[in-house]
Amino acid sequence: MASFRVLRRMFCAAAETAAAPVPVGRWERLKNSKAGVFCRSLASDYKEACREFAVGAWERPFKASAYGVLLGGALTCFYTKPDQSSFETALLDRSNQLGLLSPWIRNATSDGHVQSLVKLRNEGRLRHVGLGLLSLVYRADYDPAASLYEAQCSNLSVPWRELPQRILDVGFVSFWWILDYKMKDYDVNVEEFKHLPEHMQLTSPPSVQEVEKSERLHEESWLPPKVEEEEKETKIVDRREESVGLESQTEEEQTPV
User: The pTM is what?
Assistant: First the structure.
């Protein structure tokens, strides 16, 4: 009887241990949760997409190369897009370049464009907007810090349809293209050459031979003058002239009258 009780207890303990749930770890619970299932499905989708992309690039290399170049160019344009601080720096540099020149030799187009931009900057009317691959600088009517009703009312702000008429510069690939174009030949005053004939108003860049000749003459201008050699040459020339004169006199004396 006692042995039967012992066996029954053993069987009950074994049944309880078999029926008890196995403890699940934290990582298993996380994988079986909704977030874990979603992340696993998302990772499998991305894995399948990358596999299809690799297979497509292997089958069509030229098309994949073209897409890669376009994507790389777009990323380059995005990361090299100039900002507002770069425009202000470029504007101040151009203004300093013009300030080093006399007003009589400044280009009127360059000077007028830079002076108008500096005036708008001092008035706080320059605005900057980024459009992904490029940047735009446009003018506004009022300073945002002004307390006027027209400057603070959103209903009276500049509409987007007027933006093309207000654009002052375009920033692309670390350059401000309109500002650089306006500063071309900024140290040439075209007004000075208006009185010249038409064929003299247009100039062409010098050739390689002309540049080398100018450089050679400039280097020779810094050399000390050779006075001794010139004196020797003049003395030789004088002696030759004297000898020629003496020979002519002797010939005249020897000729019968």
Answer: 0.58
Longest dimension (CA), the chain: 186
Mean pLDDT of 166-192: 89
With H, G, I as helix, E, B as strand and everything else as coil, classify residue 54. Answer: helix
Closest CA to 125 of 137, 134, 109: 137
pLDDT at 19: 45
- DSSP codes joined into one string, 148-189: -HHHH-GGGSPPGGGHHHHEEEEEETTEEHHHHHHTTTTT--
pLDDT surpassing 80 at residue 40 = no
Q: How many CB atoms lie within 10 A of CB 255?
A: 7
| pLDDT score for 3 | 53
List the single range of 146-150, 169-173, 233-237 with lowest mean pLDDT: 233-237
**Closest C-alpha to 140, from 162, 112, 170, 108:** 162
**What whole-number distance in Å separates Cα of residue 96 and Cα of residue 106?**
12
Q: Are 139 and 122 in contact (CB under 8 A)?
A: no
At residue 76's C-alpha, the angle toward residues 71 and 80, to 5°, is 155
Q: What's the whole-number mean pLDDT along residues 116-138?
A: 89
Q: How far apart are CA 160 and CA 139, in angstroms?
A: 12
Average pLDDT over residues 222-249: 64
Query: Among 162, 173, 82, which Cα is nearest to 128's?
Result: 82
Residues 245, 237: contact at Cβ < 8 Å?
no
The region that residue 174 occupies, defined by phi over 0 for left and psi between -120 and 50 for alpha, beta otherwise, is left
